[in-house]
UniProtKB/TrEMBL annotation:
Domain HTH CENPB-type: 47-124
Main subcellular localisation: nucleus
Subcellular location: Nucleus
Organism of derivation: Coilia grayii (Gray's grenadier anchovy)
Name the record gives this protein: Transposase
Pfam families: DDE_1, HTH_Tnp_1
Keywords noted in UniProt: DNA-binding, Nucleus
GO cellular component terms listed in the entry, alphabetical order: nucleus
Annotated DNA-binding residue span(s): 23-43
Length: 373
């Protein structure tokens, strides 16, 4: 039944029609469209009263619990699977329900009513991750990390000093350059193609920011060689540049970045630096440098960065989206433009400040979360 008209009003209006009243006159009297009243007379909404359920309330609650459990353990089920599970329950109990639709499962109407009765059941597009990540971010491992953080906070007095707590991580640009923004086209056009404006040359960008939102100039790593143009003059202010055979971070480059970090970070000591357990980050040279410069390092547990790494969770997505949008806009101006190593840094400069990283980082507040756990 449409939510705008109560069942009692509909019943009174139908009774008036049965007693000889004109359909249009009765509809106007009770404030109900005559087409709605006509549909009720024809039995279009006869299935709407809620007692006609395929599953009992406790059975529906069990199905909801199963949906939530599967989603929490990395195996979320689809709507079609949920409908199959519901029909299997009906068949096992020998029920003949008007909501059953042949042998294929329950009808879409039943599913719509089920969702209305259980508004906590949501539909999302899943983010596919490795099985190790699903089972890596356990409560025990996260608690262990927070206990380590609490000990460091108490020992070094990091509580209330988010400007001394930093987080670093790298991300790759290249291979793909897709934008989430919708484009305009003819309504009847089934497929819309957009010209690729980024090359497959891999470029790594290493970012770092404090829990107070203070950003260290990024470290840009190119594959095999540096661009031949004045890339450093066109890139983000005070950015650092490096080269590796693959375009990824290695131990020598990370030591070079640590020197860059010390130059632009707060001068108070000690500092607290959160990072992942990449092999380039945990060499003996890194340990010696951090000890000499009073930098306390906390490595995030393996396979947990998708929930514990602030840069992964909240920063790199918007940064890459801004980069792709800027590249596509430049492609509209110059149809033959391709964003590669030569013009990567000026686009990164605009994207880096189009949605300030400081605003995102300060909203995440990773240092405060570890304090207040």
């Amino acid at each position: 039944m449409p939510s705008k008209y109560s069942e009692e009003v509909i019943k009174q209006a139908l009774l008036a029609v049965e007693e000889g009243g004109s359909l249009r006159r009765v509809a106007a009297q009770f404030g109900v469209p005559h087409t709605t009243l006509r549909d009720w007379r024809r039995g279009k909404y006869s299935h709407l009263p809620h007692p006609n359920r395929a599953l009992l309330p406790n059975e529906e609650e069990a199905l909801v619990s199963y949906i939530f459990w599967m989603a929490a353990h990395g195996f979320p089920i689809t709507e079609s699977v949920a409908l199959v599970l519901a029909i299997q329950v009906c068949k096992a109990l020998g029920r003949n329900n008007p909501f059953l639709k042949n042998d294929k499962g329950l009808s879409r109407m039943w599913w719509s009513r089920f969702r209305a009765r259980h508004p906590t059941v949501a539909s999302r597009r899943p983010n596919y991750i490795q099985a190790e990540r699903v089972h890596g971010a356990t409560v025990a491992r996260v608690d262990e990390l927070f206990h380590i953080c609490q000990a460091l906070y108490d020992h070094h007095g990091f509580r209330g000093t988010p400007e001394l707590i930093y987080n670093c991580d790298e991300t790759g640009f290249g291979d793909k350059g897709s934008s989430r923004k919708r484009v305009l086209c003819n309504k009847g056009q089934r497929t819309v193609y957009a010209q690729q404006v980024t090359t497959r040359e891999h470029v790594t960008v290493h970012c770092c920011a404090s829990a107070a939102g203070e950003v260290i100039p990024p470290f840009v790593i190119f594959e095999k060689c540096l661009p031949s143009t004045a890339y450093s003059l066109e890139g983000p202010p005070n950015a650092l540049y490096g080269v590796s055979d693959t375009g990824y971070m290695d131990s020598d480059l990370f030591l070079k970045w640590l020197e860059h970090f010390v130059r632009y970070a707060r001068q108070e000591r000690p500092l607290l630096l959160f990072m992942d357990q990449h092999e380039a980050h945990v060499g003996t040279g890194v340990v010696d440098f951090c000890r000499a410069n009073q930098i306390e390092v906390v490595c995030l547990p393996s396979h947990t960065t998708h929930v514990l790494q602030p840069l992964d969770v909240s920063v790199y997505g918007p940064l890459k989206a801004a980069f792709t949008d800027m590249a596509r806009c430049l492609g509209l101006v110059r149809g033959n433009l391709t964003i590669g190593k030569r013009n990567f840094t000026p686009v990164l400069k605009v994207a880096h400040w189009s949605r300030p990283v400081t605003h995102i980082i300060s909203g995440v507040g990773f240092g405060r979360q570890a304090c207040s756990h």
